[in-house]
């Protein structure tokens, strides 16, 4: 059974790619105390993207230390082969890339059957039409607003129209998430299109107060929310 978020959308999700890997436990505690409601786990295999991060063994240790929702973003080739390990590690949300799995219907079904939320992500150059037939089969659409692989890149401005298109195609059937170059300056660009999850690395981990960074960005996002 997937864990529930402890707050309503929109939320800011710390991207653990930018945390201090030597002190992951204290980073998790700091993020919990700062009010984070989920942790975004950037899984990179050095093949699908030109960088390596961590895999299921590290995620399992993270799972043992927190009850926050774990949002695994699999930037890997052949996710079908490794899926069971991420399920076993305790990921609540599991997102795969359309560029890695051109027909993802089977893996999305497997993710849901395992009790997790199923997500699809698309790179900046992939048209939204590549995923539009997945409406009803996905719980999350993760729009990459940088080329995946590294934190600290600049937000690609064309991502604004892409988020709008995703929201138009998927309506309320999917959680819409955006990842890459997200911070106080870029949230107002995409927030009018009802983004649910803002994945943020540098704009949290480069700040002295994680709590202030998360609170300020969440308030900015909420100020665009129709229900506020
Ligand atoms: O998936 C990612 C890169 O592939 C990261 O989540 C993302 O880049 C976060 O870092 P920043 O907020 O610094 O851009």
Describe this structure in words.
This protein has helices spanning 24-33, 56-65, 79-89, 105-113, 159-170, 187-190, 202-205, 210-222; strands at residues 11-14, 38-44, 69-75, 93-97, 117-122, 140-144, 175-179, 197-200. By secondary structure, the protein is of the alpha/beta class. It has an 8-stranded parallel β-sheet. Strand 4, helix 4 (105-113) and strand 5 (117-122) form a beta-alpha-beta unit. Helix 2 (56-65) packs parallel to helix 3 (79-89). The longest helix is centred in the C-terminal third of the chain and has 13 residues, at 210-222. It is globular and about 40 Å long. The model has no long low-confidence stretch (mean pLDDT 97). Ribulose-5-phosphate (5RP) is lined by residues 15, 17-18, 42, 73, 146, 148-153, 179-182, 199-203. Ribulose-5-phosphate binds next to strand 8 and helix 7. A divalent metal cation binds at residues 40, 42, 73, 179. Keywords: Carbohydrate metabolism, Cobalt, Isomerase, Manganese, Metal-binding, Zinc. Pathway: Carbohydrate degradation. InterPro entries: Aldolase_TIM, Ribul_P_3_epim, Ribul_P_3_epim-like, RibuloseP-bd_barrel.
SSE layout and pairing:
Layout: E1 11-14, H1 24-33, E2 38-44, H2 56-65, E3 69-75, H3 79-89, E4 93-97, H4 105-113, E5 117-122, E6 140-144, H5 159-170, E7 175-179, H6 187-190, E8 197-200, H7 202-205, H8 210-222
Parallel strand pairs: 1-8, 2-3, 3-4, 4-5, 5-6, 6-7, 7-8
Helix pairs in contact: 2-3
The protein binds ribulose-5-phosphate (5RP).
Ribulose-5-phosphate binds next to strand 8 and helix 7.
Pfam family, one: Ribul_P_3_epim
Function: Catalyzes the reversible epimerization of D-ribulose 5-phosphate to D-xylulose 5-phosphate.
InterPro entries: Aldolase_TIM, Ribul_P_3_epim, Ribul_P_3_epim-like, RibuloseP-bd_barrel
